[in-house]
Amino acid sequence: MISDLVIIGGGASGFMGAITAISNGLKSVVILESTSKVLEKVRISGGGRCNLTNSCWEISDLVNNYPRGYKQLIGLFNRFSTTEAFDWFQKKGLSLKVEKDGRVFPCSDSSEDVIKCLTVVAKKSGVKVFTNSHVKKISLLKEGFTLFVKGNNQFNTKNILICTGGHPSGRKLAKSLGHSIIQPVPSLFSFSTSENSLRTCSGITLDVQIKLSVNKKKYAETGAILITHKGFSGPAILRLSAFSARNLHANKYKGELRINWLCMTEKEARGKIDLYKLENGKKLVFNNKPFDKLPKSLWKALLSSLNIDTQLKWADITKYYKEALLKCLINKTYLINSRGPFGEEFVTAGGVSLDEINFKTMESKICKGLFFAGEVLDIDGVTGGFNFQHCWTSGWVAGKSIALKS
Ligand SMILES: Cc1cc2nc3c(=O)[nH]c(=O)nc-3n(C[C@H](O)[C@H](O)[C@H](O)COP(=O)(O)OP(=O)(O)OC[C@H]3O[C@@H](n4cnc5c(N)ncnc54)[C@H](O)[C@@H]3O)c2cc1C
């Protein structure tokens, strides 16, 4: 028997592709999953809550969250974007909520409910799911393909949708059918630094402006960072790591991070310091700060890094120390010496080259009948639900095009 469509990989993009294809008229749709459980990444995502999309509804803003693939995603999002994904899940019975920062979660705060939604809808629609079915080889037939599954099983199919995520086996299958692979490198990680002046501030989160230079390439972000016991993490750092993923990898994760702790211009900060000095001359610099939002422990750590005397009064601060303090507050440099641990989420930057995909259909330009969706492609997003969104979008477009062409 020959299936209409076999999907390799039972993850987010695979399930969206399968459900869309079968609900648009395909008769026989099969998912082959290597492991014993489908949707395992959905289960562990968002700390077990699954941040499945984001309330960034404007496509022009949405694409800015994708360091790789943003151009191709414009067309795809015009067909199935955050609004459509949100409605899709709600219509399938999964209640969703939007958090203050725009991240979308199931109201139950349980990723199990996302899994339940996708598996129940797939089953009801007639999608056949085979677990413990690792696809090791694909060969071309005159019309269609044969898939060779570990344990000597074979499947014949008219179309294949490869949805193997960041797993190397999917890239290997794509390569065996003539596709170029952009070298996979990690994305969404924290930064480690050997500088230990901030160790006492570990656990503090604050809004800052940060600039990273790696081998003369410059990246900038403004947002929340978390001081960790080894360096820096938090949304703005993870975002920076995503946009600089390739350059940092090429530079062995060495770079120069500049932090403006105050999010102020030099003129504004200087004005505040001068006024404070004038009005608080008798007070100790260590215990009294002109900047309310700056946490006390960070203020003290920055002063200590400059070797400022703990008994120094504001009236006695010299020009040299005032200038050093100003620089430390608005333009402090930290040397990044390695990649720190991943945050709650991580993805692979790299994968099947986008030049070889027709983004109207997600079909390969090299091999007719072969389609791709999800993280296996050289597309990835920052944290906030953007990675799953790209999986829902590319899975939906692929499923729909396969159904319409058949
Ligand atoms: C810890 C963690 C937390 C995350 N949290 C979030 C989050 O909250 N929000 C967000 O947007 N993104 C999150 N992500 C990223 C998100 O999980 C991925 O972008 C997404 O799962 C990719 O989906 P996919 O369908 O492309 O691949 P996957 O979900 O990785 O699915 C691929 C499937 O293919 C199977 N497979 C691989 N090779 C073969 C083969 N040869 N034969 C058969 N099956 C095969 C794999 O076993 C796997 O089940 C997180 C990632 C991690 C690691």
Textual characterization of the structure:
This protein is 33% helix and 28% strand. It is of the alpha+beta class. The radius of gyration is 25 Å and the shape is elongated. Strands 1, 2, 6, 7, 8, 9 and 18 form a seven-stranded mixed β-sheet that branches. The mean pLDDT is 96. The chain has two domains: 232 residues, FAD/NAD(P)-binding domain; 156 residues, no CATH class. The site of flavin-adenine dinucleotide has 38 residues, from helix 1, helix 2, helix 7, strand 15 and helix 13.
What is the structure about, briefly put?
This protein has 406 residues and is α+β, with helices and mostly antiparallel strands. 33% of the residues lie in helices and 28% in strands. The strands form four sheets. Strands 1, 2, 6, 7, 8, 9 and 18 form a seven-stranded mixed beta sheet that branches.
Quick tags:
406 residues, alpha+beta, FAD/NAD(P)-binding domain, six-stranded antiparallel β-barrel, 13 helices, 18 strands, elongated, binds flavin-adenine dinucleotide
Q: How do the helices and strands line up, and which of them pair or pack?
A:
Layout: E1 2-8, H1 12-23, E2 29-32, H2 40-44, E3 53-54, H3 59-62, H4 70-77, H5 82-91, E4 96-98, E5 103-106, H6 111-125, E6 128-130, E7 135-140, E8 145-149, E9 153-162, H7 168-176, E10 181-193, E11 205-214, E12 217-227, E13 231-233, H8 235-243, H9 245-250, E14 255-260, H10 266-279, H11 296-305, H12 319-330, E15 332-352, E16 357-358, E17 363-364, E18 370-372, H13 386-405
Parallel strand pairs: 1-2, 1-9, 2-6, 9-18
Antiparallel strand pairs: 3-5, 4-5, 7-8, 8-9, 10-13, 10-15, 11-12, 11-14, 12-13, 14-15, 16-17
Bound molecules: flavin-adenine dinucleotide (FAD).
